[in-house]
Write a structure and sequence with these properties.
Layout: E1 13-15, H1 21-25, E2 53-54, E3 64-69, H2 76-79, E4 83-85, E5 88-91, E6 94-97, H3 104-112, E7 118-121, H4 125-137, E8 142-147, H5 155-166, E9 171-175, H6 181-195, H7 200-213, E10 215-219, H8 224-228, H9 234-243, E11 246-252, E12 255-262, H10 265-280, E13 284-290, H11 294-307, E14 315-318, H12 321-327, E15 332-338
Parallel strand pairs: 3-4, 3-8, 8-9, 13-14
Antiparallel strand pairs: 1-9, 2-4, 5-6, 5-7, 10-11, 10-15, 11-12, 13-15
Helix pairs in contact: 4-5, 6-7, 10-11
């Protein structure tokens, strides 16, 4: 079993083109430069070019507008003025928008039906371009667009292409190197900074600083979906299946990497708690994600709340359909952003 050592290097990569106020207060000074991104295996699937969800363009006049994608798993109550562009999920011959046409419940049923092929694809550059233009036309001074790790999806690259097309001097694209509320906490930090009147560079820096501190740790019941989606190697998937282990995984430089292997779900939950507490220090912002195992998620949240009494209670939510399509039913994870 490997030693517990999450990569301490800054994880956010940016390009120019609260749940808690402390997340924003601590997000002051970190920025980095950007590189290019590969596409999803199924990138470019047809869909409504400008389909976005939740927040509209109102309320952005005179401030920086913040955009993200549906893998941020932002609870509706926390979305605020953030514009969310959905990825797409392909269920056999049917194409649906993540968080708009499909939710976790329907996805769980689809995954359980092994006869049904489930795939995902990024938003098109046209979807991002339309969103950016709408926000700028509504009076936004600039746009900061914060997204899923480019190592896991072509979403960041689609946003980058759209930024170049619309106005690279007014649209900044950030690779969070994260997923789920790892991305979501960075987005919330950016939105809070924007609401307080921060300049675009400072809104970008707020997202980057939180993303750099974020750690994402999770376990899955099986590795085959991650293997088929190209998110882990075939050898790792075979080992996990043959040994009937519960692999614990984490993000390192935006990539899914093995952390350790345990034998039971109970042990996996315990190790998630121990790893999260070790990362959190005395106080952190926390989220618990799951697909189809709400009781286990609440149990994990309870344990974290008990071990980290100075921290806010973890946000608990089911993961987005796009992430769920790759991790499968039974997935359970924790997101930790240490404060300070």
């Amino acid at each position: 079993m490997p030693d517990f050592a999450l990569d301490p290097r800054p994880a956010a990569v940016t390009e120019r083109a609260d749940v808690a106020a402390s997340v924003v207060d601590a997000a002051a000074d970190d920025t980095a430069d950007a590189t290019a991104s590969p596409d999803d295996a199924t990138a470019g699937a047809a869909g409504p070019a400008g389909a976005t969800v939740r927040a509209g363009a109102e309320g952005v006049a005179g401030r920086v507008a913040v955009v993200t994608d549906s893998t941020a798993d932002l609870p509706a109550a926390l979305t605020g003025a953030v514009r969310v562009v959905p990825l797409e999920v392909r269920l056999g011959d049917r194409v649906v928008r993540d968080g708009v046409d499909i939710g976790p419940g329907e996805l769980s049923a689809a995954i359980a039906d092994r006869r049904l092929e489930v795939q995902t694809s990024r938003p098109t550059p046209a979807a991002f371009a339309e969103t950016y233009r709408e926000l700028l036309a509504a009076g936004a001074s600039a746009v900061v667009s914060v997204h899923l790790s480019r190592e896991l999806s072509g979403t960041w690259d689609a946003a980058r292409l759209a930024a170049r097309e619309v106005d690279p001097s007014r649209v900044r694209v950030v690779d969070s190197r994260a997923m789920g509320m790892g991305l979501g906490f960075a987005v919330l930090a950016a939105d809070r900074a924007a609401a307080e009147g921060a300049e675009p560079v400072d809104v970008e820096a707020a997202a980057s600083a939180v993303a750099a501190r974020c750690r994402v740790i999770f376990c899955v019941d099986e590795l085959d979906r991650l293997r088929r989606g190209g998110r882990i190697g075939a050898a790792a998937a075979v080992v996990g299946t043959v040994l009937a282990v519960k692999p614990l995984l984490h993000l390192v430089d935006g990539r899914i990497t093995a952390l350790e292997k345990v034998r039971t779900s109970a042990r996996a939950t315990q190790r998630l708690v121990e790893h999260a507490v070790a990362v959190a220090g005395t106080e952190a912002d926390l989220a618990v994600h799951h697909l189809g195992v709400p009781e286990r998620a609440e149990d994990l949240a309870d344990r974290l709340a008990e071990r980290l009494p100075a921290s806010p209670r973890p946000v608990v939510s089911e993961i987005s359909a796009v992430i769920g399509a790759h991790v499968g039913n039974g997935a359970l994870g924790v997101v930790v952003v240490p404060r300070g």
